[in-house]
Input
Amino acid sequence: MFEQKTVDTETQCYHCGDDLPAAPYLLDDRNFCCAGCKSVYQILSSHNLGNYYAYNEVPGQTQKQQAGHFEYLDEPKIAADLIDYTDEKITAITLYVPAVHCSSCIWLLENLYKLNPAIAQSRIDFLKKQLTLTFKNQETSLRKVVELLVAIGYEPQISLQDMVKKQQADFSARDLVMKIAVAGFCFGNVMLLSFPEYFGLSDLEQQFKSFFGWLNLAFAIPVVFYCGRGYFTAAYQNLKNGVLNLDFPLALGIAVMFIRSLVEITGNTGAGFVDTLCGLVFFLLIGKWMQQRTYHHLSFERDYRSYFPVAVTLIKAGKEKPLPLNELAPGHRILIRSNEIIPADAILLKGEAELDFSFVTGESVPVKKVYGEVVYAGGRQLSGAIELEVVKPVSQSYLTRLWNNEAFYTKKDHIKTFSHTASKYFSVVLLLIAIGSAAFWMLTAGDTTRAVASFTAVLIIACPCALALSSPFTLAAVLSIFDRNRFYLKSTAVVEELARIDTFVFDKTGTITNPEAAGFSFHGQITEVEKQLLYDLASNSGHPLSRELVKVLNRNKIFPVDDYVEKIGRGISGRINGYEVKLGSSAFIGLPLINAPMGSHIHLMIDKKYLGHVVFRQQWRAGFKELTFKLGKFADLHLLSGDQNHDKQSLIPFFPRAQQLHFGQSPQNKLDYISQLQSLGKKVLMLGDGLNDAGALRQSNVGLAVTDNINNFSPDCDAILDGAAFHLLPQFIKQAKDAVKIIQLSFAISLTYNLIGLYFAVQGLLSPLFAAILMPVSTVSIILFTSIAARYCARKNKLL
Amino acid sequence: MNMIYFLIGCSILLALIFLAAFFWASKTGQHDDTYTPAVRILFDYELPEQKIPEKIDEDHF
Output
């Protein structure tokens, strides 16, 4: 789990391991990439927590991003929703800390009391990335605790949705483990007590026969009524809804085995099938557990609430006051600081807004708004504070209205798995055979005992244990293979749905483009000296394009900038080494509008001499061309972009059909487009990354969110794909198809076992020993076959 | 051979005690996090400052 990095302390930050800038921050002979990393080091070393750096090299996370404001945590109403427990003395809270990633993190966060003695206890759950802490509320406050975490680089993620989720926390997983424990306990004891019967009892031991039988029966009671209860209720529910699936023959098998054992043991006519019964329930529960395993640290059901802040700053009578988001109403005047998100549609009252809507609309170029214009919810303010008046409630905004669509209220139950279809036929055939064999003995021999024996024996031996296990075990194996390749599925059922996909729909910005790597090209003549001037100027600005430019030029800063001016959304200028340097839009430079056909463009002018313009264009993710080529062979490819069509020409070579490229799509358009494809009978996989894709992801058969940091926000989806594994998508699809084949094969194998058993069962000649051997043998061989075959296919598909 | 009744009773009782222990562990959340404790145990125990014992070796030998 922990990565070993070798670190060159000369060129990398001591705290986070990022490359050092030309002029690093220095403290105690150690280099830091930014003031944030340096201050974390300072806090830790002054509290004797230097061990943080001893357990792992560069354990920190970059501190370049600004942290939010936490005034709202002082508001008792908001805090009450977040904390787990509070009394006069202590308060307990569980926080989700995405930055947790190594043993140093655990060590530091569990030693928080050294930084703030008011923190009584802090515990980390590493896999869930959760920090549970208890603090003395007389001596400190929730806000102070959270601000301490931010100061040491572990900003907790506090969102509205997590507050809701906490209230619905359930213990179903724990309950299942208990059931498995009870079933295993009974299985083991019953097996021991059944051995004498299997191996034959001597005369001396005959006296124990009924004692062992009664004991076995006692063990069967908790297995049937506690562990196996779920199968009876499920079978009843499904029958009531007119669905026939594997639960019915399973419940029937359990019931018949119990009743027959009860009759045989109480009537002293036989040993019963308690051993088989306990083994069956035990294996079934293990299969269920395999199916239920989920990723604790990933959330697949996020909506806009986890993207939006918990509270906003309300301006009332000239004073700032935090207000919970759900109390925000039209007419409120709110303050949005730099890097904060607009929570509701509003009118701009003060300040200049430059909003990054890339997450909402897919448009990568920041949008400028001036006084009196309507600002839509979801945009991130890039620089400077602005004041707004809310015109619509949060849930009725342009963006959030999308969640009122019925697609979000109907449960996604379209996933019809192979085992569901197969089990319907299986159940019917099984019942027919059971009734048929009973009828045969009744009519031909008039032998009621034999008829009952054969009827019950058929239901016992054909109890589809191996059948019920083949798909959970195959799918769980595939899930863990995907997981190793950084592809995370919401549930095992998604694998089978993946295998059926015949249409792929791509979003553009952030999905097929790489948000980290931007392509720059300079059109015009520029010398090395002029490049230096460009670098020195751009390094003063915090604008995303300037930062990208600085990263690409990668030089040392030489000259200071005098008379630096930054006009938000227009450009920057300054006097460097005697030169007048201007960088920005053509209007800012003072030129007639120069048309640059594609992408964002910035013009450069030095000493009133126009040098040319920098074209900023996004780059496709690695392997995109190959991916479209491979997928295009068997599936239809579409593109839905919220962006304008300045990239259309460069995208045409990737897509087999140019008319399937659509630009300027609103979130609602995307959703409608998907449902239109589905009405044509297509199985659609949607790849998206932003809130604007949320509707389409929800509507599609498989919604796949692409993200470069799996802990960041990703919209409601069925699967999360790490951007680094993007090029593996065709292999994942292949693996899913192979998984379906493996399930079909294992069905065939378990049916063979059933047939062998049925041969004896229909004759009414089923001995308890035979059942007790056949059941585990078939189960274990299915488990072995599925896991070996899944791994073999993964190797073939180069996923292992 | 009547001893068998007693022995089987003992063995089941013992198994029940283990089952109860498992229930208790599960109820108190000991299986909720199966990863972090394995890391936690590897951290060095830090002696409180000032009283770094110097004679500890002599006492042992």
